[in-house]
Amino acid sequence: MVATARMMLIAGYEPTGSFISNAVFSLLSRPDQLELPRKDPELAGRGLEELLRHAGPGILVVRFANEDVEIGPVQIRAGDQVLLDMDAAHSDPAHFTDGERLDLTRDSGMHLQFGHGIHYCIGAPLARVEGQIALESLVRRFPGLRLSVPASEISHSKNPFIRSLTALPVEFEAQRPEG
Q: What is the model's pTM?
């Protein structure tokens, strides 16, 4: 029980924190997309699935084939290890038109960021709520939030399985409290 609780804590922290910073970076580096939830704060919640698809923390997933399968010219045998590329899946033109582009108005409900089937993330509902609250709060409370360095200077960690930023330098003007 303790090992399971520890795993859940760690599994729920790093990917969610990485997702929030990735999502904020994606929005701040695309002013046209950032303007959408600023005009319609509810879009921060509705656009969450698109941000998960486009800027989610999962990069590569390892699985093992249960049975022999042929995919195109490739034969995968039962027991073979398979490395799944989430970015390729999330930009598949059969499912996402112009998949390389962030579009908060897109219906991205088919993304695989939380897995699928028996591998579906048990913490997905909590991660969605955390992401939605964080993004809605940032858009509402910091209307002038912006990157303090050019987007090209933002670097990512070298972890091949989790997309995360090494830092996200931002700036904003102080707001006077209302009241």
A: 0.86
